[in-house]
Design a protein that fits this description.
About 95% of the residues lie in helices and about 0% in strands. The chain is mainly alpha-helical.
């Protein structure tokens, strides 16, 4: 009886031990998958942050470019306005020089009243 009882006790113990080994293997595999998931999540979070930073940088660069273009347009408009004013002054000066020359000639040439 001792042998039969030992055999009965050993069989469940062996089966239990096999079950425990499988359970430990599954738990270890699950832990590894959890760690891998955590790492992947951390990597994805980092990539998301990088993408957000890149998008923000691109937005700011577009905004800066737009502001630069506006400033160039304003500068061009002001330059054109100044050019037009200078041109008008130059034309007025030439007109005034022409009038002065005409007056000078008129004073030099005697007018004959007949």
């Amino acid at each position: 009886m001792d042998t039969k009882e030992k055999a009965r006790k050993q069989k469940p113990d062996a089966a239990s031990e096999a079950f425990r080994r499988k359970l430990r293997k599954l738990q270890n595999a699950l832990e590894k998958q959890g760690e891998a998931f955590d790492q992947a999540t951390a990597v994805e979070s980092g990539e998301i942050e990088q993408l957000k930073d890149m998008a923000h940088k691109a937005h700011m660069e577009r905004k800066l470019t737009t502001q630069e273009e506006k400033l160039k347009a304003i500068h061009l408009a002001e330059s054109q306005k100044l050019y037009n004013e200078i041109h008008e002054l130059h034309v007025s000066l030439e007109d005034e020089k022409g009038r002065m020359k005409a007056l000078e000639i008129a004073h030099e040439v005697p007018i004959h009243n007949e």
